[in-house]
Specification:
- The structure holds 2 protein chains of 2 kinds.
- Chain A is mainly beta.
- Chain A has one helix at residues 2-10, and strands at residues 36-38, 50-52, 58-61, 71-74, 79-85, 91-96.
- Chain A is built from 1 helix and 6 strands; from the N terminus they run H-E-E-E-E-E-E.
- In chain A, the strands form 2 sheets. In chain A, strands 1-3-2 form a 3-stranded antiparallel sheet, with no helix packed on it.
- The longest helix of chain A is centred in the N-terminal third of the chain and has 9 residues, at 2-10.
- Chain B is mostly helical.
- The chains are: A mainly beta, B mainly alpha.
- The A-B interface holds A 26-33, 35, 54-58, 60, 62-64, 70-80, 95, 97 and B 3-8, 10, 12, 15, 19-20, 24, 27-28, 30-32, 184, 187-188, 190-192, 194-195, 198-199, 201-202, 246, 249-250, 253.
């Protein structure tokens, strides 16, 4: 247990992000819109606080840097997701049932 | 921390309660339907279509109407079968969505000069889609929740989602606006189907074999119908591989391989 605490505390602090209120995404109630944006296709580079919903292909955003193990929600398709490291080391989201 | 400060901090039960509510649905659709009349901006300019293109579009829209009618009948029948309050309420929002889809697509036919849309829909309906509709109706009549949700919210909705998305890239501006609005609703429907079945498969893994059989039976009907639609829309063959991607992704995640 103490080893786990030491490991956690050695992780660098997460970057914080200020989310813009209007991303142009209009499919969820107004107060949640800043947490989502449209995906621009394979050339769309995701920021460290973003991950793609595998179900409906909407970009999910957080106000902090995402890391493997984080839980995120896609309100556009109502999926509950877990952030994991993909084969290429990039963060991807897995659906949790 | 307030919800709007970080929505992902909600606990799962609170999230489920929120997104399966009529309140959530109402606030969501306000964002993209408020200024629409029959699915498009009232001042959207209709393009002059060559007669052959118009005729192909009418055929495609007639078949979309069949698909939406199947989903409307299916979702409304499933409200009574749904196992709990949240699934009942979500499905009742889906019923409203499907009714709207049928209405705007039928209205689009009228805008395209179709005088008797119901007759035209019957005349141009794909036999395979009719067959799919009958099979879905039978599953609902048997109160077979798992198979009916799989057929409707995974097979049919995912195929519609992909087909409509592809169609927007080739559609006239008014049809595109109508389809974009429908796609936004469909996201909720496909997500609901996958999550609901994923949860049930987790607790009842043997269900997977039944869903595989349903898939084997219904897959060909839906795939062939939407491939026909791609032909009518004249989507280049090289791009049609995209058609099943959303659907195949969902069945892969659920482990329902044939």
């Amino acid at each position: 247990m103490s080893g786990q605490v030491a490991k956690l505390s050695s992780e660098p602090p997460r970057r914080k992000y200020e989310l813009l209120d209007d991303t142009g995404f209009d499919e969820v109630p107004k107060k949640y819109r800043k947490f989502y944006r449209r995906w621009g296709g394979p050339g769309d580079v995701l920021a460290p606080n973003e991950v793609l919903c595998p179900v409906c292909k909407i970009v999910i955003r957080s106000n902090r840097e995402l890391r493997a193990g984080d839980r995120v929600y896609c309100m556009a398709c109502m999926a509950r997701l877990r952030v994991v490291e993909g084969q290429d080391g990039a963060l991807v989201a897995d659906v949790e049932y | 921390m307030s919800e709007s400060a970080e929505v992902h901090a909600l606990d799962p039960e609170a999230f489920e309660e929120r997104v399966h509510s009529f309140q959530f649905w109402f606030e969501a659709v306000q964002g993209y339907l408020t200024d629409r009349e029959y699915g498009h901006r009232p001042d959207a300019q209709d393009a002059e279509l060559p007669e052959s293109d118009r005729d192909r579009l009418v055929t495609v829209l007639c078949n979309y109407c069949i698909g939406e009618t199947a989903a409307l009948d299916g979702a409304s029948g499933l409200v009574a079968v749904a196992p709990n309050r949240l699934t009942k309420i979500f499905l009742s929002t889906q019923v409203v969505d499907e009714g709207r889809h049928l209405e705007v697509l039928r209205h689009r036919l009228v805008e395209l000069g179709v005088e008797r849309p119901e007759e035209e829909i019957e005349r141009r309906a794909s036999p395979r889609l009719r067959d799919f509709r009958q099979r879905l109706e039978a599953l609902v009549a048997e109160r077979d929740w798992d198979a009916a949700i799989f057929a409707q919210n995974v097979i049919l909705e995912a195929m519609e989602f992909s087909t409509f998305h592809m169609h927007t890239q080739y559609a006239d501006p008014v049809t595109r606006e109508v389809l974009v609005g429908i796609i936004k609703d469909e996201r909720r429907h496909i997500g609901f189907g996958e999550t609901e079945l994923g949860r049930r498969l987790k607790h009842h893994p043997t269900l997977r074999d039944r869903l595989r059989r349903v898939r084997s039976e219904l897959d060909p009907l839906v795939l062939a119908t939407f491939e026909d639609a791609m032909e009518e829309i004249q989507v280049p063959r090289g791009e049609r591989a995209e058609l099943g991607r959303s659907y195949l992704g969902a069945v892969e995640r659920l482990g329902v391989r044939t």
